[in-house]
Amino acid sequence: MTASSGAAVDQTIRPSQFHDDRANEDENASLVRRPVVLTPAQAAELVQSGDTILINGSGGGVGTPERFLEALAERYRQSGRPAAITAVHPVGCGDWGEKGMSRLALPGLLKRQVTGSLGNSPATMAMAAAEEIEAYTLPQGVLSQLCREIAGGRPGLVTHVGLGSFVDPRHGGGRQSARATDEMVELITLHGREFLFYPAFPIDVAIIRATTADETGNLTMEREPFIGDPLAMAQAAHNSGGVVIAQVERMRKAGTTPAREVKVPGALVDAIIVDPDQQQTYAVRYSPGYSGEIRVPIAPHPPADLDLRTIIARRACLELFPGCIANLGYGVSTGIARILAEEGLSDAVTLTVEQGIIGGTPVSGNDFGAAINYEALIEQASQFDFYDGGGLDIAFLSFAEVDGAGNVNVSRFAGKPNGSGGFIHIAQNSKTICFLGALTAGDLVVSLQNGRLRIEKEGRHRRFVQTIDQCTYNRRVGLARGQRALFITERAVLEADEHGLIVLEIAPGIDLDRDVLANFEICPRVSDRIGLMPDSVFWPGAFRLREAFEKLPGHKMHRRLASLLNRG
């Protein structure tokens, strides 16, 4: 359509209109497109002041392009450039110390950090708390899915994820510092329903990681424990006119890469960094179990010591059922995977982790996001698509604070703007959500005597409070979906219904008034059918979860399939 046609001119913004620094004619142009192999220091020079950079990676070095981050920080220390950049990374990146995004915690380098979680990088989290940078923590899956919207030239992401939480613009818009004044999320209405709209923005530089690159830039990830969103990130940067940098462990000759193994095609890759010392995670050089190259034999082993975390995980296991699809969050919830392995029930349920793990046994601790013996490893955005659509039967997440209505905070407490990672997606959309944690925090000491729990020293901090600092899970939104919400602690199990919290169970040996109700700022109701938590939770030795599973109905096949087979 042209202006001279007399019709209205199409003024839609195309991806190519963002900007494009690729010259049409260049002295370095070649008939064959090949990426340039650079040192980390050279690659860092591709980032200019004011750029928006997009980083793939997760947690404790899982898939993180560490050499590039190290080189970028060193360049800034030496030259003061680049300055005032915006760093976007869907998953928190760092070792809870000096690595990962903490490397970029240099005054003047970062203008803005947009991420699912600041917790892995305490140095940038401190900068956010001190109002030294603009900080936004948006849902992890939203940022993953937004990469696809940017790549496709669409205006942004429309989703229900985040409604009623601190991400909702009516409740803060995901801001974690007062100097973060731009609107990164908007409330809209479609067909009479409320949604959140996360606008797209152009990407100047994308930094992704793979295992192997060939000479034409095709990337494979055969030794990686995590895929993340490298393809969508590369497409987003490329279609914004930006630069795509890939950090890899090794190179191979052009034409030798099996096409079906390519995760990012070479046509999208501009520059390559080779780091022969690249590790799978900060703690692990290489585990063939993490990469899925082999299934790791799991020898029978005695049950773990019956400590507070194991008590909570044991009681949580009793909410599982054969054939269910579950998510395990970071923290105490990972103990569930260990118990299932101890009981020989790992194949009876499908455990998932938001980074893209399906099946197997998720890894706990700083390598969270990796797993062994998994059935599939998919792109992170696709995992969140499944979660957002209600695919999870049940999920297990930690909590920091809970109010009387059952609203939960994990994103900002004790002055720390942690963010929420994938918590909002999982908590908001699972059919049943179980929040796990100790009833009180701060030097809590418990003991077990003949299957009875005793509070030796009460925690210094209440976790069930009158007002939470930030709303990460809105119980009203869950109730509207018909979702069941449980709070499982070492001494009591509660449910959040339309009237608020109600105590369903207490542990053997626990005094309801002294040990439970006295530790709530808003006293919960007590069920008139209150019972004891099962004895098997509190005795050392085998948990006998298999016996409990055998009493439950088996996995139900789809009704259409059942009807077909019954007719036969």
Individual helix count: 14
User: How many separate structural domains?
Assistant: 2
Residue ranges: pLDDT <50 for 5 or more in a row? 1-18
Shape: globular
Helix content: 10-25%
Explain this structure.
The structure is a single chain. The chain has 568 residues and is α/β, with parallel strands linked by helices. The protein has 2 domains: 35-274, 3-Layer(aba) Sandwich (Glutaconate Coenzyme A-transferase), CATH 3.40.1080.10; 308-550, Glutaconate Coenzyme A-transferase. Helix content is 20%, strand content 23%. The chain contains 14 helices and 32 strands. A 10-stranded mixed β-sheet has the order 20-17-16-15-21-24-29-30-31-32. Strand 2, helix 2 and strand 3 form a beta-alpha-beta unit. Helix 4 (140-151) crosses helix 5 and helix 4 (140-151) packs across helix 9 (380-388). The longest helix is centred in the N-terminal third of the chain and has 14 residues, at 66-79. It is globular.
